[in-house]
Fold:
Amino acid sequence: MADDNFASSPYLVPFDGDFSVEKSPTRPPKGAPDKKRAKKELAEVQEELRDLQRRLYADDRYSVLLVFQAMDAAGKDGTIRAVMTGVNPAGCQVSSFKAPSATELDHDFMWRIYQHLPQRGRIGIFNRSHYEEVLVVRVHPHYLDGQRLPRRPKGNALWKERLSSIRGIEKHLWRNGTIILKFWLNVSQGEQSRRFLDRIDEPESNWKFSPGDVAESGHWDAYMAAYESALNATSRPWAPWYAIPADDKPYMRLQVATILRDTLRGLDINYPDVDDEMRAEMEALRPIVAKRAR
Structure:
């Protein structure tokens, strides 16, 4: 794998640390496909993803890790469902990371993700991830009290250390065949609030509403600063970040699916060739199989 093996996109976070949350769009650009066209194009991409996922599974050399981070109500769950529609469940796994358990707190902050990493040939999806440790914990540093750290650098030093650790581990995974794509679904605070209202007003969506989500939205500026720092520090050719406009869900889903499709297209993944010995055995068994198929 070359260092530049990633999908090109206008939403690719630059690798030079020059990313600005303030300048990152939350709405599609002028001329973007409307809702109907976006859904049609997504269906076409989904169809190709089915074949690419089968080839990835059969090739059994690479794994793919998709990381989704966003503010509440940005549409992570719906995007994951939409992008992976039709993909063989045997070749895909979704892991969600919430508050760490007592066992997880007895290990380093990256420990709990290791057991959820995808095997070769499979696509792993992190719905939230190890980045919570430099996002929500950075916004609420009192969470560190429960981690019983033997040393706690002052100021921003701890976050710089954790971001450095993340970079190193992600590069290690890449060197060993894990293709990493990270998506920040960039929803505006106004759109988030409108979606919260929908959850309050629509009975079938009441279950999605959490008072805690509204409280977290009150820390918006702190979260945006944490995202900007994290994306600048960890968007690299081997583990790029994409800042996807999330105020328009069909457009957002199309962009994520297209980036995954283009990345898989760029891999050297093929169905394994059958050697002469296996081919001969298959032909020898053909009459038996054919007779049973009648």
In short: Confidence is low (pLDDT under 50) at residues 1-5.
